[in-house]
Structure formats: C-alpha cells, structure tokens
Specification:
The structure holds 2 protein chains of 2 kinds. Chain A is mostly beta strands. Chain A contains no helices and 11 strands. In chain A, strand 5 and strand 6 form a beta hairpin. Chain A is globular, with a radius of gyration of 13 Å. Helices cover 0% and strands 58% of the residues of chain B. By secondary structure, chain B is mainly beta. In chain B, the strands form 2 sheets. In chain B, strands 2, 4, 5, 9, 10 and 11 form a 6-stranded mixed β-sheet that branches. Chain B has a 5-stranded antiparallel β-sheet with strand order 1-3-8-7-6, with no helix packed on it. Classes of the chains: A mainly beta, B mainly beta. The interface between A and B is medium-sized, with 28 and 25 residues.
Amino acid sequence: DAGVTQSPTHLIKTRGQQVTLRCSPISGHKSVSWYQQVLGQGPQFIFQYYEKEERGRGNFPDRFSARQFPNYSSELNVNALLLGDSALYLCASSLDRGNEQFFGPGTRLTVL
Amino acid sequence: GEDVEQSLFLSVREGDSSVINCTYTDSSSTYLYWYKQEPGAGLQLLTYIFSNMDMKQDQRLTVLLNKKDKHLSLRIADTQTGDSAIYFCAERDDNQGGKLIFGQGTELSVKP
C-alpha cells in the first residue's frame, strides 16, 4: 500500500506570491494534519481535518488555510508569502483522530 | 504551556546502546511518540506508548515512561550506523483534536 504522498517535492516562490501544497492520505485514513518544520526545529502543528471538517488549528496567521476533499485528500494554501515561510511542510494521516499519525515525505518550500 | 524538551546531540559507538531523553509538560497527554527523521526525509513513526504504561519494548527499541516526572526515554540496543538520524519526541494534545507537540529533536551520531 502507498504511504502518504505529497506534491510537489520542492517549490521556489518569491515574497508576496501564493502557494498550494497537496497531500493524499493512506487509503482508508480520514484524518489529515499539516505541520511546518523550519530548519533545525521540530514540526509545528498548523491544521487538522477530519471528515472534511477542520478539527484543530495551530498558532498560524490567517494567510494559512486548508481544506479536505471528499476523497480525504487535502490542500494547504499560503497567501502573501514571507521569507519566514520557508520550511518543510509535512502532511500526516491517521485513521480517525487516532493514536498513529503517519507522515509523508514533505514539500520543501523556499521563499526568495 | 506546551513544551517538549530534548537534548540536541548524542554520539555513541556502533554496538553500544543509545538512550535519548525527553521531558514534556502536559500531564493529560494520552499518547507519547518517538519519530525518526533522516536527512531530507519526512518523519518515520518508530513507536508510541500509552500513558498508563511504564514500558514498551519493540525489537531493539525500549520506551520508558515516568509519568510522575513527565519523562520519556528511548533506548536503542546495539546501535548501528543506519540509526544515525534526528529523533523527535512528541506528545499528543487531546484537547486540540489530537495534534502532536514535538520537541526540537536529538541528533544521534553513530561512529563505527
């Protein structure tokens, strides 16, 4: 079975632009979470979606938004990019809001 | 507040045991996790422990939980060069949809 997949792998944007990152969960998993990992730090929670509804939001500005589709895949959208948004964006899926969260390989975003 | 703390570096010789330590703050956390991250990759779930357990063993991995002191440790027996990576401790926040709160990570270096 395929694990969590994310696209694109790498992305370079300039300040002020907008970006959309995509995530497909493990088959059968209904919950998707997004994390931001800045170089040298642990991942920080951004959002959790379960059954297409937002169930948790981290301490991120409104420039960050997300949604979950009927097939449980998810998109993370970031508007008005800042240099500080440069990071590895990780998606994790779980069966429900369950105890095991499995991570994808991440999308490396560089903002110039 | 939420805080998970880990020491930043650990260096061991191949064949020795490694012990990575972590302290957390939320005594209501139901699950605590250990993830492994290799360079340029996402996070791999190694093991997790339910908060009513003191110990969990899984092949070369042993997790010890001291709930009174809010201390979690991961012991890797017979450490190999392939174990070189960054190890993250995480606690689950059940008040926020099951989001994970990560430490900064411990970089394990295994010398031959």
